[in-house]
Every structure is written in C-alpha cells, then in structure tokens.
Amino acid sequence: MFELLKEQPKDKILALVQTFREDKRPGKIDLGVGVYKDAEGRTPIMRAVKKAEQLWWNAEETKAYVGLAGDPAFSDAMIDLVLGDAVPRDNVAAVATPGGTGAVRQAFELIQMANPNARVFVSDPTWPNHLSILKHLGMEVVLYRYFDSESGSVDFNGMLEDLGGMRPGDVALLHGCCHNPTGANLTMPEWDAVIALLNDKGAVPMIDIAYQGFGEGLEADAAGTRAVVKGCPEVLIAASCSKNFGIYRERTGILMAVHHDAARKALTQANLAHLNRQNYSFPPDHGARLVTLVLGDATLRADWEAELEAVRQGMLDLRTQLASELQRLSGSDRFGFVAQHRGMFSRLGLSPEKVEELRRDHAIYMIGDSRINIAGLNAQTVPILAKAIVEVGA
Ligand code: LMR
C-alpha cells in the first residue's frame, strides 16, 4: 500500500529550517521560520508562562480529559483578548485547537460542511500553509491582489477589485494583523471598506490572527478583527497563542465562530465540537491552561503584557535600524517600507536569484519570496544584512 503514496510538495518554510541547520558556516543568519528570537538568538519561555507552569505543576490533580471544546475558561479568556467587547459572549461559538494551524484547518472544514460550494478568497501572497490546507481539502481557492512589491505596501485598489468578484457564501480569508508574509497591513478605513464590500456581496470573512501584540500592540492589533465582528453578520476567527505567548510546541489555538443572531450559537458550537471529535477528539490542554492562568491573574497578565511589549518594541527598533542602514548604504529610500511594516515579517521584494545569492555567498537565510523574520536579526547582524543586500545588487 505505501508504495502507492506520492511525493508531497515540501513546505518552503520548514525546508529552509532544515537547510539552515545543515549549514556549518559560522555567523550564518536565520531569517526564516516565524519564531521569535532575542538578541542572543534564543526563543525564551516568557516569564509569566514559566510562572504559570510552576503554579500548575503544583495545582494539577488529574490528567483526565477536559471537554471536546477544551476548557470554557480558555475560550472565555481568548474571546476577551481577541474580541474585547465587540460582541456579546453569547454570540460566539468556540473550540480550542492544536495551534493556530488547527484552528485554520477546522475553520476550512466547517466552511466545507456548511457550504461545499464556497470559494475561499486568499491574499496573494499568503502563508503558504493556507493554500496547502485548502488544496488538501479540495476547496476552491481564488487569489486576491494584496501587495504591491514596488512600494512594499498594500495594493488596496487591487484587493477591492478582486474581492468584488465574490459571490454570496464565498469566504474572504484576511490576516487580522501583521500580514504573513508581507508585513503590510490594512488601515482602519481600509478595514471598513472591506467590511462594506463583503456585506454587499454576502460574503463571509474569516480572520487568521496569529501575531496579536507583535504589531501596534495587543488592542490595536485586534482593532480590524473587532470591526469585522461588529460589522459583519457571520465571522470565523482562527487565533494562535504560539507567538504572543511563545508556546509554539504546546500547540495552542482557538477557533471562534461569531453570529449576530445568538440563537445560531448552539448549532455552530455542536458542529465545532463534532469536528474536534472527528479530527483528534480532545484538543491539547497544557498550553491552553497556561494561557488561561496568565490571562486570569492580574500580576501574571501585567508581566506577560510587559514582556510582549518589550518584544514588540525590540522588533520595531530592528526595523528602524535596518531601514536606515539600507538607506545609508544604498543611498535610496527603496527599502523605507521596512520601517512601516508591522509584525515579525517583511517581504523585501528581492528576486529568488538574489535570495539564493544571499544564502550561498553570505549565509543569510530568508524565504524564497524574500520574506524576512525581523526577530532573526540583532543590532550586530542588521548592518551585515544591509551590506549583503546592497552587495548582491538587490
Ligand atoms: C511562519 O510563517 O514561519 C510560521 O507561521 C511558522 C509556520 O508554521 O510556518
């Protein structure tokens, strides 16, 4: 049987992790996978998370199953974090999932169960795994223009024009903040225009929010998502705790389904629980427990917020430093957008050949589409990257 299996396309982000590991050159620089790293190149366990683990180690009395939807306290805490008071809790069905990817996968499956004819409109470019999962599920994908590589900013006219082709029941996948891979984000008036268009078309928004707190701050990063939830009758939201709580390997995420008619909640909730049961029964608890403890304790929460804010500021400083170093060395403002982008990523707009040259001749690793992880840099490596970019003539 196994001989019937076919080769699967490699995930370009994970393939790069492997190539980087195998590179023996000292001083190699990893700007690939979206994992936060401090100035020493470590991915630390956040202080509040470590403390919550200690508390939980003492308090935990059983490893028995929780519930198909996970602990409702986790859902409450996350709904509050992401949606604030944009919508009453009674209007939100939610299940814990294994990471943000789990939430994205469950969301696509829910769409497919509800409306097998739905087409999913996806930004061009987007996180490659969005496309991969949609293909795996056999769902129809339509790309919408999103990024203008020349200016490094959102091609908003192109986006509106392409979303204008949506039909009732189609789904628009939007990045809540810190667009992956480009780093270019919608302004609030642009969110409002998208909301009006989706409502006009009878289309359903789905938001993937995996970097809340990495862009403009916890509240500001959720503003687009909250506007959509207020403005559209039905919304799906896949949220990840991997990055903002730094608990990548614990696989912690949540899928929320919001309906303006609270009477729809029970049916949606039952379908979400059913989906969890079919795919893995109970979602992992440990990471969700830590998040619940941190968000529910004023001291832990304040410390988490402070550490997250320091992470965010550090990435902003690196952005400013990189943009000005590139400006100084190249004598042009071409890369000024690096300072305007937000979140972990920026797409630099280099050709695949230049990206390859940077890897081969300078041991600098970025994704083939020239996405860099800003957090892979530090004050010492920013000038090295800037010099290399100018040297390859990018
Ligand atoms: C990324 O885009 O690098 C992250 O979301 C990690 C991943 O799973 O791809």
UniProtKB/TrEMBL annotation:
Residue ranges occupied by any Aminotransferase class I/classII large domain in the UniProt entry: 27-389
Keywords tagged on the record: Aminotransferase, Pyridoxal phosphate, Transferase
The protein's Enzyme Commission number: 2.6.1.-
Cofactor: pyridoxal 5'-phosphate
Source species, domain of life: Bacteria
Record flagged with keyword Transferase: yes
GO molecular function: transaminase activity
NCBIfam families documented for this protein: PRK09257.1
Family affiliation: Belongs to the class-I pyridoxal-phosphate-dependent aminotransferase family.
Assembly and interaction partners: Homodimer.
Name of this chain's protein: Amino acid aminotransferase
UniProt organism field: Roseovarius phycicola
